[in-house]
Amino acid sequence: MFTMVSPAFINPLSEDGKQMVREMGSLEALYNQNADLIEVITKSHLQDISDIPTNYVELALKRIEWYLVHNSKKYDHKVYNFLFNVEITPFDVISFYILCQAIGIRYGPNSRESRVMVESQGKIIENRLEKLSKGEREEVVNRILGSLLTQSSIKWTFFEELLSSKKLQLRDLLLDNGQIILDREEFLERFGDRITHRDPEKMYELVVGAKIKELIAIKMIMQKTEDYMNAVYEKAQREIEPNPMLLEVAEKVSTVLSESVQTYGYGGGGGVGAKASPLSPKAFPPCVKKVLEGIRSGGRNDAIILFLTPFISYARLYPGVFAENVTKRVSDVDPNLNAVQNEVLPMIFGAAERCSPPLFEDQPQEKVNINAKMGFGMHDALELKNEGETLWYTPMSCEKVKIHLPSLCKPDKTCKTIGNPLSYYNKVKRELKKGGAEGEEKGDGKSDETHESPSKG
Ligand code: SF4
Fold first, then answer.
1. How far apart are the CA of 421 and the centre of ligand 1, in A?
2. In this structure, what is the dihedral angle of CA atoms 86, 87, 92, 94, given to the nearest 10 degrees?
3. Is the CB of 163 under 6 A from ligand 1?
4. 411 lines ligand 1 (CB under 6 A)
5. What whole-number distance in Å separates Cα of residue 248 and Cα of residue 242?
6. Does the beta carbon of 200 lie inside 6 Å of ligand 1?
């Protein structure tokens, strides 16, 4: 036996969710203390009640906060247990809409805030599903998919948006003649005869089953969340005065985000790797020092664009990339791009200028490639609105430097213990900090030495 979970607990954009919003009435109640909400929260299993949200806006901010801290070492689940109590649904739905509207109006679809909103919705759903019983989970996912996937046989092109935005990968789907197979009966009908040595039912569970259905449901809701914020943004462009209460909420979201980036790193990275801090040129490896002096022979463009740009940007902004192994964007660690504009680009441009001939003198268009390698698309100016159009390249491994730019590699003693120029930098920087002692720290070196670029395409 299991209780029926409202689809709105998983998908606030469902019909149930929309009905909850209609019942809410005016926006005036956003900041009012809500006794029903407080009761649900205080009665949630193992809930810490020392700092609970008491109105819709506080609940909305806690939702974002949970996402930002849930992977960090400091995370205490007792503070956020209420988010996974099904009785929170009507309040949670309102807080979801408040966030989408506030972020949509104030920041628009390509902002850091909207991306965090979409990602946090995905993570919340994932964690909520995990906490339901198997029966509840299957039932609610089937109901959600039933309303999201209205066509009986789905062509893969139906998922085009999800695939192009990388929210879903083609390899996650079972395709047969261009049709996506999700339904058990359809699977058995299409493949039953072809499966000879195994039980077709078990094969269905293995290949399609609950896992892929949940994945599709989650990704589709994420996409719908993004679409909804987009629609809010477009509508706001036509309005003269956006709602000041929502603008205020948007500012609060941004503050929570900036504080969390400073405290935990974006997405609660947990500070496994080295922390971002001003560049320390003394800790640069021989190959980087050589490029900074200016390239006077072949390989100039690749040395500046493919080698130096990723190195300097990661060394300054996300030196722990290999240890943490979490993909980030530049704005996740430098929200206003201040460090990029004032520290990273000047160093790269300086090296480009010292080349012979100076890089931008004969090939000014290469500035576009520098922007692209930091994730800001193929544009003349490095602007937040274009972020995500390309990937932020991670620094080349020593192995790749030796193959593609052999003249740069003049190894010294430290080079013997590392596999990537960024590991060299982190190691020497730590040693310099300790007063130049021969540092033999744990956690360095081999974990990030020969790491292939997750972003390198
Ligand atoms: S071994 Fe690696 S870090 Fe050292 S100079 Fe060569 S490429 Fe640079």
1. 6
2. 130
3. no
4. yes
5. 11
6. no
Tokens 């689940």 locate to 77
Any binding-site annotation on 355?
no
User: Is the Cβ atom of 391 under 6 angstroms away from ligand 1?
Assistant: no
Q: Is 398 annotated as a binding residue?
A: yes
Instruction: Using the mean position of ligand 1's atoms as its centre, give its distance from the Cα of residue 410 in Å.
Output: 6
> Looking at the whole model, is its pTM more than 0.85?
no
Atom of ligand 1 nearest to the CA of 288: 8
CB 100 within 8 A of CB 232: yes
Residue with tokens 């922390």: 275
Which residues, in sequence order, are CB contacts of 107 under 8 Å at separation 6+?
A: 113, 114, 250, 254
Pair 285, 96: CB distance under 8 Å:
no
Gap between the Cα atoms of 367 and 360, Å rounded = 7
* CA dihedral sign, ordered 120, 123, 128, 129: positive
Average pLDDT over residues 36-57: 93
The two three-digit tokens of residue 149, written as one number:
């996937």
Numbered ranges of CATH 1.20.930 in the chain: 7-146+214-264
Question: Is position 415 annotated in a ligand binding site?
Answer: yes
Q: Residue 316 is inside which H or E element, if any?
A: helix 309-317
Does the domain made of 7-146+214-264 have the CATH classification 3.40.50? Answer: no
Q: What is the pLDDT of residues 137-169, one digit of tens each?
A: 989 998 998 888 765 556 666 677 667 666 667
Q: Which residues contact 383 (CB under 8 A, 6 or more apart)?
A: 376
What's the pLDDT score for residue 387?
87
**Cα-based torsion angle of the residue sequence 351, 353, 355, 359 in order, rounded to the nearest 10 degrees:** 110
Phi-psi region of 280 (alpha: psi -120 to 50; beta: other; left: phi over 0): beta
Q: What is the pLDDT of residues 381-408, one digit of tens each?
A: 999 888 888 889 999 999 999 999 999 9
Count of helix runs (H) and strand runs (E) in the chain:
25, 3
Query: Hey, what are 247's tokens?
Result: 């603008």
Going across the sheet that includes 154-155, the strands are 154-155, 179-180, 175-176
Backbone phi and psi for residue 53, each to the nearest 5 degrees, phi listed first: -70, 140
**Strand pairing partners for 374?**
392
CA of 265 to the centre of ligand 1 (A): 28
Ligand 1 atom index nearest CA of 419: 2
What is the Å distance from ligand 1's center to 263 Cα? 32
- Helix 286-293 and helix 345-354, axial crossing angle in degrees, nearest 10: 60
Atom of ligand 1 nearest to the CA of 402: 7
Question: What number of residues does the chain have?
Answer: 457
Whole-number Å distance, alpha carbon 402 to ligand 1 midpoint, is: 8
444 vs 361, higher pLDDT: 361
